[in-house]
Every structure is written in C-alpha cells, then in structure tokens.
Write a structure and sequence with these properties.
Elements (H helix, E strand, L loop, with lengths): L1 E7 L4 E8 L4 E5 L6 H11 L3 E5 L11 H8 L2 E5 L9 E3 L4 E4 L2 E7 L8 E7 L8 E5 L20 H14 L9 E4 L17 E2 H7 L8 H8 L10 H10 L8
Parallel strand pairs: 3-4, 4-5, 5-6, 10-11
Antiparallel strand pairs: 1-2, 2-3, 7-8, 8-9, 9-10, 11-12
Bound molecules: fe (ii) ion.
Length: 254
C-alpha cells in the first residue's frame, strides 16, 4: 500500500494520499485547497492516478481541495451521505467500502463533530484481512475529541452533538483494536480541538489511555468536559462552509 500524510501548517490540517501501487489506484482523503498541486505532483511522481477523493465531512475551518482535485484528475468524489453538498458525488453509506486494488477504505459513520461524518478504516489486503489504520477525521484527534459546536444548530444543540459524539467514540472508534494506527485530520494549531498534540499520528490504544477527552466515567462527564472551554469559531466559518457546500471558490466576508 502506498501511504503519505500531507500537512498544511497554516490551518494545521492533515490530509492523506493512499492506495494500491500494484493496481495503480490512489485516493486522497480530506484534501486542503492549498495542497492540490502537491497531491497531483506526488501521484505523478509515483506514476499512479488519483481515482477517488474523499472528505470525512463538510469542513468548516478550511476550504476543501476536493472539488479542485476532482476537476484536475477526473477522480470520483465521495462524501458521507447527507453531507448536503451541491455538486456531483457518490454519497457513502455507513459500512460502504471504496476498493482501490488491494487497499480498501471502509466508511464508519461517526457523527458528533458534524452530523454527517465518516472515519475511514483502511485495510491493505496484501498485508492482512483486518484493518491496519483508521483516518479519524475530526471525530477523534490526537489529544482531544472533535468540537461539538461547529455544526450544531436548530434541534441539534451543542450538548446533543456531544452526546452523539460520545456514541460514535464508544460504539465505533474505541471499539477498534488498540494497535490500529490513528491518523487525524488536524493537529496542534487547529481550532478544531483543544490542546492537540503536534504529533499528527497516534494509535487507538494510546489515545484510549492518554487522550484527556477520553478519560470519562460516564456520558454525562464526557459531555460536560467536551462542552467546556470550546475555542472560538474559525474566522469566515460561514463563507468556508458555503464554499465547501457549493464546490466553488471562497467568497470572503466583507
Ligand atoms: Fe471539521
């Protein structure tokens, strides 16, 4: 399996290029708009085409590179079903698998940061029949859980989003084996979590033991802690969400 993590320090976003070198199929997960040339160059240097571009959710803190990358490469766009984007894409259901030769990417519905949010479980069939790593998006970060307020609204209050995230963590992500390598979509410097590590890689087991947000004894305790000291919302959040929903460029707020 080919796998690379690409970082954008300006917004502290992590993105991923992965896939099967033998079958010549690459995917990009959570691409940042400023790194589109880098993904294309990396794939080109490997002589492998990008055939799939996936977002874990509709981003609120930075503009996604998905539309631009799809336009450049002709790849298929994938987003969680119900993400509410206005451009052509394949709506991924919970448990659906995107096959890239020997590499398989399975959608794991993990709502709570956003209502439509997928983690992606990655299996390399050349190595084994069980998942090797998990891309956790903004649901579980290295040192914190995802903030529950950015996509809250209406009947989905911040508290309800935190309860939803609790279920995603306890029933889905923390149900995974300790040895799974964990790759988040943000790291230290991002507004999407508190006290994130500057190390953008961990394991499910290490986070289970040492992630402050996961040291709860009840749902109540988790919710109270997660809804405390939430960082300020990203600048231009509304304009960024609008750009990501439409697939068009960012129109800055006046
Ligand atoms: Fe997010």
């Amino acid at each position: 399996m080919f796998f690379r993590q690409l970082l954008n320090d300006e917004t502290a976003c992590a993105s991923y290029v992965l896939g099967c070198a033998s079958h010549g199929q690459l995917a990009v997960v959570d691409p940042h708009v400023d790194l589109v040339d880098d993904y294309v160059a990396l794939a080109g240097s490997q002589g492998l085409p990008i055939v799939a571009v996936l977002d874990t959710h509709l981003q609120a803190d930075h503009v996604s590179g998905l539309p631009a990358l799809v336009e450049r490469t002709g790849a298929r766009a994938y987003l969680p079903a119900g993400a509410g984007v206005e451009f052509d894409h394949h709506a991924l259901a919970d448990g659906e698998v995107v096959k890239l030769g020997n590499t398989e990417i399975e959608a794991v519905a993990t709502p709570g940061h956003a209502l439509e949010h997928h983690a992606y479980l990655v299996t390399d069939r050349r190595r084994g029949d069980e998942p090797w790593l998990v891309l956790t998006g903004d649901a579980l970060l290295v040192g914190d859980a995802g903030r529950p307020d950015l996509h809250a609204g209406g009947e989905h209050t911040v508290e309800e989003m935190a309860r939803t995230l609790y279920r995603s963590l306890t029933e889905r992500l923390l149900a995974l084996p300790d040895h799974l390598v964990l790759y988040p979509s943000h790291y230290s410097g991002s507004v999407c979590g508190r006290g994130l590590s500057a190390n953008p890689i961990s394991t499910v087991g290490f986070e289970r033991r040492h992630n402050a947000a996961l040291q709860f004894s009840s749902e109540e305790e988790f919710v109270v802690a997660l809804t405390k000291d939430i960082p300020p919302a990203p600048e231009q959040q509304a304009a960024i969400v609008a750009a990501n929903r439409s697939g068009r460029r960012l129109v800055a707020n006046p």
